[in-house]
Amino acid sequence: MNKNKSPSPYLLFIVDLILLNFSFFAMNYLKRGTLKLSSPYIKLLIVFYIIWMIVSLLTKKFHMRPFRSYFGGLFLYAKSIIFIAYGISLMVVLMGLTAFSRLHIFGACLMFFIIEIFSFTGFYLTVGNVRIKLLTKNFEGAIRKQKISIFLFISDFLIISFSFFIMNFYKRETFNISYEYEKLLLIVYGLWLFFSIITRKFDKSNFQNYHYAMAACTKSAILMVATMSLAIFAFRLFHFSRLQIFGTFLLLILFEAIIYYLYFIFEFGRNTTGDVESIEELKDFYKQKKIPVETREVQERTSAPSFMNIIIDRYLCPYPHFFEFIKKTIDLSKIKDSEAAIMNFQDISDIEILNIHSLRLLINFYRLNDIRWINRYFLEVHKKLSNRGYFIGRSDTIETHKKKFFEKYPKFYAEVFYIFYFIFFRVFPKLPELRKIYFALTKGKNRIISKAELMGRLYFCGFRVLAEQEIGGSVFFIAQKVKTPSLDQSPSYSPLVKLKRIGLNGQIIFINKFRTMYPYSEYLQEDIFQNHKLEEGGKIKDDFRVTEWGWFMRKYWLDELPMIFNWIKGEVKIFGVRPLSMHYLDLYDSPLREMRKRVKPGIIPPFYADLPGKFEEIIESERKYFQAYFKHPLRTQFIYFFKALNNIIIKGARSG
Q1: Are residues 476 and 345 in the same domain?
Q2: Residue that terminates a domain, selected from 108, 133, 158
Q3: How far is CA 644 from the centre of its chain?
């Protein structure tokens, strides 16, 4: 459509509401010869309103953004009316409201759709710019690009069959199904196959991560439930057990969650990154190059440059310590006025207009939490800065968000509602389907970002954080452009991580663990190793990258439960030395490295038998274990294993 003649969303809302009411009352008149609604149908009209509103918001029908084609508009309205029919049918079937007229409900939906199409066509022909494009080639190309997983296809077929028979047994205490339910099973198979193809839930090329795969499975299950509800209501199939039908679909999605999780562990695990612990691994992992120092002729100054006067005049009141914070880290006398920029904008286009490599200092006071595309924003800043240029920004972290929330509301209120606040502003933006709802409602505003994720994103985009400080309730940071941006296309958000380790005979294995760190924490690894000390047991002391639940999981070994899959594969045994990264293994002397390569690593290490403290003590503890193991393998395993269990269970020894 013509962008200059896009209709108002409020006008579209009013017109659509009028068309909905007209269709509903017209069908009531055709069915009963009167416009007056009986009490049940007044309630049904209210249900129509609610479902229509929800569907319209989800499909963005009132945004009316310029359509790429006329068929794009038709598809939008068709999708909307199908979802409305699905919603009404699901409500009727689940609540057992068999008395409602099918003609009234489906007739109103059909009339509403036809009137919408005529209205849209008239508007498009008279006001819009008609551009009809056939989509056949694109559709065929998408089909050809799919990479179907035969394993998932067969597994899913077995799962839905198993679920149907399990529900039949639960309902009738027999696996034998009657003739009528054989027909129902064929219908279930048909729906399963059709919506599996539509949602591409077996297409490996569609699997960006576990969440995206499960999103396809969830869509397929919802569509099967809705279609079955529509069929039950339309064809009066109320004699079939709703428990067996919907129970089958519920079991299907539960089993799919497990199967897809295991599939990702073994099929895609090697592409998943997580709590990286080896500096040597980082060279390949980051794929970043250091930027050389750029030399410029600099005029000596005896006073602060004029752009700092602007900071003092405009921002000294809300951020009283900001000026001192900068002076501690940056020599302002070496930066010209023409090489600095001060902003307070969220739009990336405000940065795009700047010349490439023209700045040595860029300051933006706008909160990063309100910027839609944070990485894109950082990369654009990276382009505009000269080599070793400085970027100063502001963000709220989890801690400052919580502090402000509890300052704004009474304690009893804040304690009750903060969890919901956290889930919406922290969890929703990270989950594929919920993310759409979040950005539709908030436009990306007020996201909760951890300090580790903030700094990790900066390192990911080629910066190094020189300083950070809480000022005026927000965290300010000073970052320097020191590297090229990372080429990694998919930073990990997955709850399961794969760690590259050395196994038996020096072979590379990938150890499964639950994520205990914030997203993007892996990009801080080099800086963490250089600036933090190791505590007893070889762990990094006071590692801010570890989440609260991560500390808990590490303490009780919950993060290591996925190592059971490595045990099933035969890569590790129950008791044995921990599998190490190449970096840690290089810290061992040559004889001990050779000893390690001769044995299969384990889940429970000999560390817990004698509880050494310092790194040198850990090395000697392992050497002593190997010397005993090579002489008497079974006796040594037995003695060390029960010593470790005694220390863990009785004495409460825990992982750091």
Answers
A1: yes
A2: 133
A3: 38
- Quote the CA–CA distance of 374 and 447 in Å, as a whole number: 11
Residue 512 backbone dihedrals phi, psi, to 5 degrees: -85, 135
Answer whether residue 333 is part of any domain.
yes
d(CA 612, CA 536): 8
CA distance 361 to 339: 6
pTM: 0.52
Do 350 and 203 have their domain in common?
no
d(CA 84, CA 15): 17
How many CB atoms are closer than 10 A to CB 116?
23
Whether 523 and 639 map to the same domain: the answer is yes
Residue 656 lies in a domain: no
Q: Of the candidates 215, 269, 250, 203, which has an alpha carbon nearest to the alpha carbon of residue 430?
A: 215
Q: What is the pLDDT of residues 175-192, one digit of tens each?
A: 888 888 988 998 898 899
Residue 487 reports pLDDT greater than 80 = no
Point out the least confidently predicted range of 222-231, 275-284, 500-509.
275-284
Amino acid of residue 182: E
One DSSP character per residue, 23-77 reads HHHHHHHHHHS-SPPPHHHHHHHHHHHHHHHHHHHHHTTTT-PPPSSHHHHHHHH
Q: Which residue has the tokens 């028979």?
A: 165
Region of 289 (left: φ > 0; alpha: ψ -120 to 50; beta: rest) is: beta
d(CA 109, CA 383): 53
> In which element (H, E) is residue 464 found?
strand 463-471
Whether 449 and 512 have beta carbons less than 8 Å apart is answered as no
Domain that holds residue 316: 286-397+449-485
3-class SS at 483?
A: strand
DSSP β-bridge partners for residue 512:
498
Based on the fold, state whether residues 361 and 410 are members of the same structural domain.
Answer: no
Q: Residue 623: which residues within 8 A CB-CB, separation 6 or more?
A: 592, 595
Residue carrying the six token digits 């497990």: 258
pLDDT at 254 over 90: yes
At 131 the pLDDT is 41
pLDDT in tens, 301-356: 444 456 666 666 666 667 778 888 888 888 887 888 788 888 887 777 778 777 88
Domain boundary among 211, 242, 268: 268
**Quick check: helix, strand or coil at residue 602?**
strand
Number of domains in the chain: 5
pLDDT (0 to 100) of residue 251? 94
User: What CA–CA distance (Å, rounded) separates 515 from 496?
Assistant: 5
- Give Cα 118 distance to the centre of its chain: 40
Q: For 135-158, what is each residue's pLDDT tens digit?
A: 334 434 444 456 788 888 888 999
- Same domain membership, residue 457 and residue 497: no
The phi and psi torsions of 561 (rounded to 5 degrees) equal: -55, -40
CA 593 to chain centre: 39
pLDDT at residue 142 in the model: 40
DSSP per residue, 86-136: HHHHHHHHHHT-TTS-HHHHHHHHHHHHHHHHHHHHHHHHHTS-------H
Is 272 within 8 Å of 498 (Cβ atoms)? Answer: yes
Tell me which residue of 64, 87, 85 sits closest to 5, measured CA to CA.
Answer: 64
What is the CB neighbour count within 10 angstroms for residue 197? 15
